[in-house]
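user: Here is a favour to ask of a fellow structure person. I have my own habits and do not want them to colour yours. Could you put it straight underneath, so I can go through it closely?

assistant:
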Amino acid sequence: MKQQRKNKHLLPAILTVLAILSSLLGILPAGSVSAADGIAYPAQAVHFGAYTTNRNLNNAGSAANTQKAAGANSEDWRIDYVSAGVYQIVSLADGKYLTANGTACTLTAKAAGSSQNWNIESVQKDFEGYDLYYKITSVSTGAALTYYQGNNTIGLTAYTGDGAQKWKLNCSGLEGYAANALANGKEKAGTIGGLLGETVFVSTADDLEKQLNTTEPKTIVITADIDMQNKFHTRIRDNKTIVGSYGSKTIYDSQFRTNDTYGAVDDNPSDNIIFRNLNMIAKNVKNRILINIWSSRQIWVDHCTFISYLPSDHTGNGQDEVGKFIWLNTPYESYLDAKDNGRSPDYITISYNTFKNRFWTVAYGTQNSETSRCRTTLMYNWWDECVRRCPQIGNGSGHIYNNYYSGDDSFLPNSCSQIISGEGSNMVSENCRFQAVSRREIIVQPDTSPYRDSGSYTAKNSSETPTKLNYTAKITSTWNPKDNYGYTLLDAYNTKGTDTKDFCTKYAGAASSSGKLKYITDSSLQTFAATVYTAPFLTDSFDSAYGNPVTDYTPAVLQEGAVYMIQNVNSGLYLEVDGGKAADGTNVQQWGANEPAAHNTWRVLSDGDGYYTLYPQIGDKVTYLLDVAGNSAANGTNLGIWSATDADAQRFKFYEAADGVYYLLTKTSGDQSCVAVQGASASAGANVVEWAVNLSDTSQQWKLTQVEDTGCVMDTTKTYQFRNANSNLYLEVANGKAEDGSNVQQWGANEPAAHNSWTLKEFGGGYYYILSALADGKTYYLNSVGEADGSNIEIHTNNKSSSHLFKFVKNPDGTYTILTRTSKDRAAVEVANAEKSSGANVQQWTVNGNACQKWNAVAFTTTAATTTTTTTTTTTTTTTTTTTTTATAVKTTAATVPTTTTTNTSKTTATSAQEQTTATTTVTTLPTATSTATETETATSTQATVSETTAATTTLTEQDTTTLSSAETTAATSATTATESSGTSPTTEIVIFGDVNLDGKVDISDAVLLNKTVAGTISLSESAQKNADCDGDGETGSNDAVVLLRFLVHLIQTLPSTE
């Protein structure tokens, strides 16, 4: 926060540097990875799912958080293999690396050291035995990546097994049965292939065969066209991703298989395999199946282009080549690998592929009687001029949606059947698009297999307008895939360019660049979406010891202006300002205490909407506030004190956990974080920080004990007028009656008089007597007639009771709240009903912060002066000398921004019968040198006539911080003057441009007040309005606020300014 406030002038430079860095980062494709030889390929984007929720780890700029899955690239991450079990996690949005930084988790550029290295380790399996949840721990600290739901931040802390420390690994774009889904009513992990293994690059058939047969997880990148026609039964083992580069990626005549051809006893079918971004070509070997899935599960075939160049007449008359692109089955009982016959394939997704020019394409089935397995999802594929089995499914469940089928306009083979539902199957098709395959779209064999189609369209040829398919099976399937997983449906047909045909012809098949490989889940493709089903098993939140779900907390109501000691429930220690140092940035900590003191007591003032500001009772008690550093919502953000900024960092909501025990919620976090002791320490001196709300953590709970407000010290040598902040009228004795019980009210005043003037006499304990200037000025005391709300305020001779005692509490705006002893400081002197009219009654009422309970203390002193001259003079007195002059320079040093104020005084000399006026015009300029001294001047006017006269003149000042308005600077002649002067008192009008709050200095508090004025939330006195005219146009408006800010940041040197 300190740097933020002190280096505002660096902001343009910082933004320039960030822009340059952003442009440099933009040179590299975010979704690509390059090998040493410069070969680019589509990195597997992964989503880190936050436990049971629908939220993913998210790049929030310099730090990570989570967001509800939205297909944004900020949710996409790449896992870079470092060594066995050790990885780096890279954001695909900007290339930044997840970095451990103490208890915080940040995003930074790649750096040396272990702070960017992470262990990713499975900690919980699903019901099938697949890894469902992982813990992610920092190699450098051992702490686990932890999701704090309360304020949506990511931090690091010791692993406890809490759900906040468990993450799913979900491949971006993967949907359907191979994804994280429900099966048998239970949650199943998603397929990840070789995500957690080393990445290798191959360019020959031998290399490919070797790498596929290794037992470790691997991503195998194809960097050249590879001919596999001389390779037979190429074994793929568990946990592999085979992905084509953006350049050469064609594999000819493969015969990949996922089990051992010969049925070795100790060799089981392989699971968890991904084929991605490949050109799979049948060219020279007839009847070959390119991908054989034998009894395997967790299989994803994605964004591949399958083409047959083999001769075929597509008639099915025996002249056709009868190989397939993909075969999913169990071995026959007569095969050498018959041991795998009892294990049915399962959890298959085939998506975003093109299949072209083959008689048979994709076939599923089992050679056993099991029908509860072989579950598959096929979507966003394009079958072009393929005759049968697109797909065919037997003994399993198939969900087929948004696929596009196109035939030859001039030829429709009699044997054509696109989707075939075989024996033992249960199938649902949705919103598919058929063209030139009319009446051959769907076949159910036998017709006792349940099937349901909805939303599909068909056309006889490419020129015909599609019509609804209206296919009805003999037995309608009652299965609803939305009960198993979330998915997105497109319109099968529309004229908006967003239907199934438009999508599949554009996005199906292998891609040549990262910009071409897309998924319907990408936020950029949401215009295609017609219906979106969300995953039925994901939640919005979960119970956790590391922060509860985002919650609306009902604010507690505290006594306005009360002073508290704030004690941590866990440690029993108190919230305090370190060393009681009254300076911006002083740290706040916990410490023991036997009694209240300035450094461990806090005054609470309402700031609206249930929020309070907390003022430590150090210094003048109103300069500093409890403050969240940098206005940040991140876990571990430090708390200190800072002068007023009008930022949310200084606003807190009290949420009651138990009687007298509260959470101090931070507005900067949206109430989702609170004031806490770091690490739940019970030690004196432990730091106080912001942390996500945890309603079971007592180190976040604070007990409030109200203590006496000691008030402030008042100058008892002066006489005061008390002007109400709400009405601008003065406290006075009604009708000037000097007798017991005379009422006190408010009334206007042009000058001090006995009935509206008061002196103070200290009693002790912070209390004062307030004496009326009536009679001898020592007889009548301000008096509260009772302790209840509405008790009247009057004057009375000394009754030697506490009804005469009052305490002054200074407010941040320079006014005072006057507490009554009769109410035990609970009530304040106020104008009844906040009336603004003269004659309104004055009473006491419980402190509520209303302006009618605030009083400006206008102090004045009476001094005697003698002169024997016959001319009228103006005498200016400084704190060190008295001189008679016509021009006076006045220098003031502001508390925050040093300024120099130059006053030029012009004098008008008049006869003794005329009014003498001293007009003061003030120019505010920045100093050429820093000064720590503050000089003040008091203008004292002396009047005389030709005969010797002793005149009493008054000098008016605003107590402490308030400069008088022109009405208040009118000198008054004392009633005790022996010989009244025949002249009138001079009027002095002082304007200090920029000094909006009339405290004699120009600083950021003036800018805050001026902005509130421009916004219409407050109004200024006449004097303040003149000071606020920073552009010198005679009016107060938004440009004045701009000019003042420019002055404060040294962009201009003088006020007023028209720059």
